[in-house]
């Protein structure tokens, strides 16, 4: 059996989450990947361990991974594959269900475990239940949760690169602009340590109280939906059912109460630390270590103690 | 231009779902149900577009059991003009829902279909994209801003590293993200008025759509619960535990 993985990338770099999709696909069979963009991206894809063939969609219409042309291309390539896989990021979630509809297949999103070629485990109800589902479709279209699969090594492979010709699709969409937030910190979804703030951070200025701690730990900074809605940080910081799903080694939650929708995004972290004024905050029910206190006093003390 | 807004009746987002003892699913009997939060945002956006003059009529549709009419009445109370209920039985899959919606689109000929980005019960995030694929229309998913002008719609989309703008020719499909707007509350007079607005009921079978599921639920289980942690007395103790017990720093 052979699986086709849509290997999404940003600013010429293959996303780490996409490498997790390669690991998942390798459990299903031989792995071919589809990449858009420059030849350099195709070369990077060819070096990924476990990839046996790279299909490079070099045509400009695929550059921005617009769903309409890319789903049509995936559907045209589908006859050669038993499984079509992508990471469950914004790109995969945008493109794969459309491709599945063109193939008359019900997609299986956010897979966290592969039981067999047709049976998969996925969280439902904001991660409050795990459903094991068996697909009766001839072809399986799935997105995989990157936190559940290790990333395939970016080096060590030497796959052949084949350029795929564009296929016709209705000209109904146009890319206009992209605004990426510039952050020098590690990517939230792949960081080993995540330091997150909630409504308890009080303001946009005060949210920066977490910066020295994040710098000391080499951590990514996250936020609860309350902090995002209050305008303290941009929405790409959001951890939760409707934001990013993370599973770092260490997750530190400051001023976060622990609503169901937030827990859905971080409760698979290895170690969870919660600092909150309210001893009754639900976050303490999932935290390995809790500290009841004022985060604005705790954070500087933590930074000092960590530097010792 | 007419706008079609599909809405779903789901377990209220404030309720902690309970897995049934036999592992066949999640308990929904006797549980408070509400409109899917993302669909409230979709309804709000459609009503705002009509208020701005960009649309002339907003039609809400729900697919599922008879009780979904309550969800449609909520949409009508928020300002939707009329509603369609398609009876199909419990929890149809996104593929089947998209096929029902395609039939309704062919009949109603809307200029825009605005859906929520995902339903908080099955967490699929697929119906909007699938409908767009079936119709061959452009899709603006995870929308945080929508502007209709000159036969096109400009959509700001939330993506992993920030935001992206795409423009789509009409007709098109949009799926609403949380930040698109703040949905209004239905006032009591509007709730009363909503009772008199038209609500048409159809059978999925009459639309010629096969509702048979493609995915069989083998089992539904509780996720492994985390072990109870401990509350510590000081920062020094926390750092010591992280270093020597958890070994994460």
TrEMBL record, chain A:
InterPro entries: DHS-like_NAD/FAD-binding_dom, ETF_a/b_N, ETF_a/FixB, ETF_alpha_N, ETF_asu_C, ETF_asu_C_CS, Rossmann-like_a/b/a_fold. FAD binds at residues 199, 224-225, 238-242, 255-262, 276. SMART domains: ETF (SM00893). One of its GO terms (molecular function) is flavin adenine dinucleotide binding. It holds the Pfam family ETF_alpha. GO terms for biological process: fatty acid beta-oxidation using acyl-CoA dehydrogenase. Its cofactor is FAD. Binds 1 FAD per dimer. It comes from the Bacteria. Keywords: Electron transport, FAD, Flavoprotein, Transport. Residues 3-179 form the Electron transfer flavoprotein alpha/beta-subunit N-terminal domain. PANTHER family: ELECTRON TRANSFER FLAVOPROTEIN ALPHA, ELECTRON TRANSFER FLAVOPROTEIN SUBUNIT ALPHA, MITOCHONDRIAL. Belongs to the ETF alpha-subunit/FixB family. The electron transfer flavoprotein serves as a specific electron acceptor for other dehydrogenases. It transfers the electrons to the main respiratory chain via ETF-ubiquinone oxidoreductase (ETF dehydrogenase). This is Electron transfer flavoprotein subunit alpha. It comes from Acetobacter garciniae.
UniProtKB/TrEMBL annotation, chain B:
InterPro entries: ET-Flavoprotein_bsu_CS, ETF_a/b_N, ETF_b, ETF_beta_N, Rossmann-like_a/b/a_fold, Sigma_54_int. It comes from the Bacteria. SUPFAM superfamilies: Adenine nucleotide alpha hydrolases-like. CDD domains: ETF_beta. One of its GO terms (molecular function) is ATP binding. Residues 58-237 form the Sigma-54 factor interaction domain. Belongs to the ETF beta-subunit/FixA family. This is Electron transfer flavoprotein subunit beta. It comes from Acetobacter garciniae.
């Amino acid at each position: 059996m052979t699986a086709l993985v849509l290997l999404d990338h940003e600013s010429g770099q293959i996303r780490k989450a996409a490498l997790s999709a390669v690991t998942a696909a390798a459990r299903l069979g031989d792995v071919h990947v589809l990449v858009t963009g420059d030849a350099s991206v195709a070369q990077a894809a060819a070096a990924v361990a476990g990839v046996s063939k790279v299909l490079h969609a070099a045509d400009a219409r695929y550059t921005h991974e617009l769903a309409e042309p890319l789903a049509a291309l995936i559907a045209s390539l589908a006859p050669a594959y038993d499984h079509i896989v992508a990471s469950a990021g914004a790109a995969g979630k945008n493109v794969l269900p459309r491709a599945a509809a063109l193939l008359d297949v019900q997609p299986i999103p956010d897979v966290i475990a592969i039981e067999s070629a047709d049976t998969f485990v996925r969280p439902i109800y904001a991660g409050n239940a795990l459903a094991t589902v068996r697909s009766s479709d001839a072809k399986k279209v799935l997105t995989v949760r990157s936190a559940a699969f290790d990333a395939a090594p970016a080096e060590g492979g030497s796959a052949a690169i084949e350029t795929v010709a564009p296929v016709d699709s209705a000209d109904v969409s146009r890319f206009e602009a992209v605004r990426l937030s510039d952050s020098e910190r590690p990517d939230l979804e792949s960081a080993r340590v995540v330091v997150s703030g909630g409504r308890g951070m009080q303001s946009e200025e005060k949210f920066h109280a977490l910066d020295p701690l994040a710098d000391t730990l080499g951590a990514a900074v996250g936020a609860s939906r309350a902090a995002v809605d209050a305008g303290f940080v941009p929405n790409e910081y959001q951890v939760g059912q409707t934001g990013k799903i993370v599973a770092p080694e260490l997750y530190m939650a400051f001023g976060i109460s622990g609503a169901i929708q937030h827990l859905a995004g971080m409760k698979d972290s290895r170690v969870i630390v919660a600092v909150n004024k309210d001893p009754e905050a639900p976050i303490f029910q999932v935290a390995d270590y809790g500290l009841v206190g004022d985060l604005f006093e705790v954070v500087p003390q933590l930074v000092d103690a960590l530097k010792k | 231009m007419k706008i079609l807004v599909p809405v779903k009746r789901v377990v209220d987002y404030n309720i902690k779902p309970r897995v049934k003892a036999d592992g066949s699913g999640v308990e929904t009997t006797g549980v408070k149900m509400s409109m899917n939060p993302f669909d409230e945002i979709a309804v709000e956006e459609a009503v705002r577009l009509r208020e701005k003059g960009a649309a002339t009529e907003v039609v809400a549709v729900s697919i599922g059991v008879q009780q979904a009419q309550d969800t449609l009445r909520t949409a009508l109370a928020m300002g939707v003009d009329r509603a369609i209920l398609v009876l199909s039985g419990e929890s149809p899959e996104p593929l089947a829902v998209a096929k029902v919606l395609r039939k309704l689109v062919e009949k109603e000929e809307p200029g825009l279909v605005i859906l929520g980005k995902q339903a908080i019960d099955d967490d699929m995030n697929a119906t909007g994209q699938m409908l767009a694929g079936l119709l061959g229309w452009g899709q603006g998913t995870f929308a945080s801003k929508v502007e209709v002008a000159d036969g096109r719609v400009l959509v700001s989309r939330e993506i992993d590293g920030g935001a992206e703008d795409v423009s789509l020719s009409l007709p098109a499909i949009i799926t609403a993200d949380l930040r698109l707007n703040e949905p209004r509350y239905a006032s009591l007079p509007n709730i009363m008025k909503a009772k008199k607005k038209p609500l048409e009921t159809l059978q999925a079978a009459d639309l010629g759509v096969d509702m048979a599921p493609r995915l069989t639920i083998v089992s539904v289980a509780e996720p492994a619960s985390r072990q109870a942690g401990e509350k510590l007395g000081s920062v020094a103790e926390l750092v010591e535990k992280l270093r020597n017990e958890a070994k994460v720093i």
